[in-house]
Amino acid sequence: MTHRFFIPPKWLTPPTVTLCGDIARQVKTVLRLRPGDDIIVLDNSGMEWQVRLTKFDHDVVEGQIISQQSAQGEPSLHLTLYQGTLKGQKFEWVLQKGTELGVSCFVPTICQRSIVNRVGALTGKYSRWQQIIREAAEQSRRGKLPQLESPMSLADAIQYARSTPLIVMPWEEAATLTLKEVLAREQSGAVAIFIGPEGGFTPEEATLVQEAGGLVVKLGPRILRAETAGLAVCAAILYQRGEWD
User: Fold this and answer.
1) Which position has the higher pLDDT, 117 or 203?
2) Do 53 and 62 form a contact (C-beta atoms < 8 A)?
3) pTM of the prediction?
4) Strand bridging mode 38-42 / 105-110
C-alpha cells in the first residue's frame, strides 16, 4: 500500500514537493523509503498527489509530482458527531474510528453526567487528538482532516447545531420513534448526532434537543456503551446515504 501523508499546502510547489520535519524523518528513518519510491501527499483540500521521491538530504526529502486526483475516500455527507466527553482512552477510540467511518467534525460535549467535565483537562489533549485524527485519516484514505472543535456545553452545542438539516439524539428512554424510521424519511442534507457520556443524557437534556428541532430516537432493544453508540449511528447513516456503495 502506498503511504499517505497530510502536509502543509506550502510544501506543494508543482511540479515538485518538499517534505520537512517529522514527515521527512518518517519517510527516511521509519519507513526507509528511497529515491524512486512513490507516496501520496494531501493538502487537506480533498485532492491527493502521487509523488515520486527524488532526493534525500539531512532533514528534507524532495519528490516529483506524477499525478493528482480527488481523494476517493472523502464522504459527500457532512456528519458532525457531538460526543459526550468520555474518560480514559474511550474518546480517542471514537475519534479514530469515527474518522475511519467518515465523520466530518467532532465536538467534545460536556453534559450533566459527564465524568470528564473540565475544559482545561480536555484542551490539554488536543495535540494528541489531532495526531490520532491525522493518522486515521491517512490510513482510511480520507482527503480532508475531520474538524475538531473546542469542548462546549450541551446547550452551546445545540445552538451550534441548529442550522443542521437533521439532528438526532439516540436515547434509551426515547418513546417510540426509531432511527430506522427517521432515516427512511430523511434522505438528504447534513446530519448532527448527539451522543451522551457514560451516564447517558438526562430528561432535561433530551428536552433541550427536542426544543431545538432535534429528534430523540431509539436504537433498538439493546443498550450500547457511550463509545459504541455514536459509531453505530454514524455507520447506519453513512450506509443509508449511499456512502458504502
Assistant:
1) 203
2) yes
3) 0.94
4) unpaired
